[in-house]
Amino acid sequence: MSITQNLLDEQIQKEVPSAARLAVAALFFVQGAVFANWVARIPTVQEKLELSNGELGGVLLGMAIGAVVSMPATGWLLARFDSRVVTTIAVLGYCMVLPLLALAPNVPLLQMSLVLFGAFNGATDVSINAQGIDVEQRYGRQIMSSFHGMFSVGGMICAAGSGVLASLGVYPVPHLLGAGILLGIVVILASNWLLSAGIETDSDEEPMFALPTGALIGLGVVAFCGLLGEGAMADWSAIYLQGTLHTGPGLAAAGYAVFSVTMAVGRFLGDWLTQRLGSVWMIRLGGIVAGTGLGLSLVITQPVTAIIGFACVGIGLASIVPIVLSAAGLLPGIAPGIALSAVTTAGYFGFLCGPPLIGFAADLVTLRGALGIIVILSATIAVLAKTVRVAPAENS
């Protein structure tokens, strides 16, 4: 009886993580898909409300405000309630808020909608990463990079689809409403296989989130630079192509789609490449590829070279966050959960504050000049590559 029960328990342990892994992957896909649908419609919303780049940057700041409030609150909820329920509510709410962005008739209502959108985005980011960490622990091997790859796949597919809809003249309201409903159905189906447990801290007195201090500062800076570049590409790539290089809305949406494709490929290959090149060289080469590619595309102001530059940013930044999080989790003298939350906080701050920063700079030095900030930050990543060294034997 005992042997039979043990075999049954082992079979259940194998099946549940497999189903949970698919469910979590689906939610990462949904997060990328929701964000890409919004990104593809930013130029249309900007044109409808007659916003300058600087004004748009100020409006987009609402998303950062919402996330800053929701992320710590979500960590608190995950520590005290069923992670499956918290995650389902967060991601489903993220899908349902999407149409509000197109329905907003004026700037104040758009900004309020973006605060709500950012709040659900932040809650989604924390909760699905908590699910991912739990699934990874049950697998006993690194699989987080593949989850982040699914985020990029969602962005890639929906950015391309949104471009087609924009080219066909489909209005933002039915587009975002339909996307929110379809993706919400995916969330409901996937929620049946999520795990109930969330992140476990080493002590009940340890906070769920903390700002980078000491040895985490370098890792926090790298995460900040990398995710600021991702956020800027998401919100400004289409506007640069359509507004600065005067392409059509379909080709403008293709810029973010290409960025998402190369980032997805880089993330799915990231673990394999890191094992062969070492994390330091992966970070260093990533910064060089992103900065050089985008820098050349800003000098040669043609749509094709711009899209190639966006592709370089995607492939260059793809492995930055997974490697930095792995390094943070291995730092001695600090609980992995605290280190991970600290670096994630720094990175997410860059992701959400980057787009408004680019908008403000664009009013001063043009959007082309403002995107040069990403080139500088990519060079900073390459310079700080050694901060991710986690073993003496690792190549540098």
Automatic annotation (TrEMBL):
InterPro entries: MFS, MFS_dom, MFS_trans_sf, MFS_Transporter. It comes from the Bacteria. It is a multi-pass membrane protein. It is found in: Cell membrane. Residues 215-396 form the Major facilitator superfamily (MFS) profile domain. The keyword Transmembrane helix applies. Keywords: Membrane, Transmembrane, Transmembrane helix. Its main location: membrane. The chain crosses the membrane at residues 20-39, 59-78, 85-103, 149-170, 176-195, 207-229, 249-269, 281-300, 306-331, 338-358, 364-385. This is MFS transporter. The lineage of its organism: Bacteria, Bacillati, Cyanobacteriota, Cyanophyceae, Oscillatoriophycideae.
